[in-house]
Amino acid sequence: MKAGFLTIVYLFVFIHLSYSQKTTILKTKNGTLEINPISHGSLILTYQNTTIYVDPYGGVKLYKGIKAPDIVLITDIHGDHLDIKTLDSIDTSNAIFIAPQAVANQISEKYKSKITVLNNGQGVHRFDIFIKALPMYNLPENPPSPKHPKGRGNGYILTIDDAQIYISGDTEDIPEMRTLQNIDVAFICMNLPYTMTINQAASAVLEFQPKIVYPYHYRGKEGFSDVEEFKNLVNTQNKNIEVRLVDWYPKN
User: Fold this and answer.
1) Class of the domain covering 75-243
2) Which of 136, 143, 159, 251 has its Cβ near the most Cβ atoms within 10 Å?
3) Residue 143, exposed/middle/buried by CB under 10 A (0-12, 13-18, 19+)?
4) How far apart are CA 63 and CA 59, in angstroms?
5) What is the 3-state secondary structure (H, E, C) of 87-140?
6) What is the distance between the alpha carbons of residues 57 and 33, in angstroms, rounded to a whole number?
7) What are the residue ranges spanned by the domains of the chain?
8) Mind listing the pLDDT tens digit for each residue in 105-125?
9) What pTM was computed for the model?
10) pLDDT bucket at 7, cuts 50 / 70 / 90
């Protein structure tokens, strides 16, 4: 844990929606980072005056009253990540997009000029934030998964001031996740049968030991993963990892 990443303040904010949304404010060395869970795999990060939308999804109501994005990160081509209807409903006129090539190939023409393509392992500085693309894929790698083959989609690490934020995207407990270091906040998927079981997710988290972890993207084909049990699996072995349980499935 880096010395500058010190204070955690919890706020409950009503953002003109039909539900209350828990917003977390994290003090970094030189400012504050605001985390807003939105829905499923979608979240919003705000540092100083820069607003980052991750996989905007779920309809315009969820974004009403929220500052328009400066950066839009998209992880994959599936409709719960590349949601054209939601993109069309929010103001992205001044936003830049960061996405893998597969997304750039499929996105609407009007967004193509906004996209910076990052492939796995590549990174870019935007708005004083370093954004690095990581692999996200299903195991075993060979033969390639039809759901999430290696190289198509991106997880991301965002270095914001002195904090490192990991967004897993749709993945299993791949080696590239397990060997992460110095992660302050991690968003970890666990929806079946598409990504990880809670046991896989807990095992990976216990290996790379982020300071804070949010289970997200946990609605699967047959319902919700047991995030309470995920928390128990992690904290039974490591009480120093803070597992935050947030309702990612608001009723519109």
Assistant:
1) alpha beta
2) 136
3) exposed
4) 8
5) HHHCCCCCCEEEECHHHHHHCCHHHHCCEEECCCCCEEEECCEEEEEECCCCCC
6) 21
7) 75-243
8) 999 999 999 999 999 999 999
9) 0.90
10) very low
